[in-house]
Amino acid sequence: MEASPQADKIMEFTLRHVPFDGWTVNALKRGAIDAGVDPDEAVRLLGDNPLDMIEYYSLMLDRQMKEAVSALDLDSMKIREKIATCVMARLKIMAPYREAAQKAAVILSMPLNAPLASRLMFQTVDTIWYLAGDTATDFNYYTKRALLSGVYSSTLLYWFRDMSNEFTNTKGFLDRRIENVMTIPKIKAQVKSGFDTVRKFFIRD
Known about the structure:
Layout: H1 5-14, H2 18-21, H3 25-34, H4 39-46, H5 50-69, H6 79-94, H7 98-108, H8 114-131, H9 139-161, H10 168-202
Helix pairs in contact: 1-3, 3-4, 5-6, 5-8, 6-10, 8-9, 9-10
């Protein structure tokens, strides 16, 4: 499904109807009318399947997140700050239509939709790591994305219930989750170092 300004506009208006109509073709057509686009054209661009619409929505969020942080000086931040900034930027974009995002999450949580959910999650966390300057190509590439998937998904669930001003509670939760994850490589390094020390003591070349 190809991204376009017109499709983005239709999706933005569709999000206003999702809380009432769900992720349905009816919501899409209503959004198209609001956007001044023929409903049939909207279906052609975004499909009539809820999963197609949700996929476009998620990829649009990734693109908008990249645009939102492009004006920031990410290079001056630590890795954990870059990641937190990107995640919070994505949540801020979602905030005006949080109920629509929640309905999308419910649909993606269904077992039959697991392949799409996994693919979209990977796309999001891969984009975040790219923005954070990650250049890993070895096993760490997948490890980092798996860890961030856990951080992002748990933060998203927390955010759905967060009523704090400017989502400060979510930011605190996210920072704690990132801090926990950042200790894992350190622990692995310590274990490896300890193993290497023992190995050198017992095994003489």
